[in-house]
Amino acid sequence: MSDTDRLLVLVRHGQSEWNLKNLFTGWRDVDLSEQGVAEAREAGRRLKARGLEFDCAFTSALKRAQHTLALMLEELGQTGLAETRDQALNERDYGDLVGLNKDDARRKWGEEQVHVWRRSYDVAPPGGESLKDTVARALPYYCQQILPTVLDGKRVLVSAHGNSLRALVMVLDRLTPKTIPTMELETGVPLVYRLNANSTVKSKDILTS
Question: Could you read off the pLDDT of 170-193 as tens digits, one per residue?
Answer without folding.
Answer: 999 999 998 988 888 999 999 999
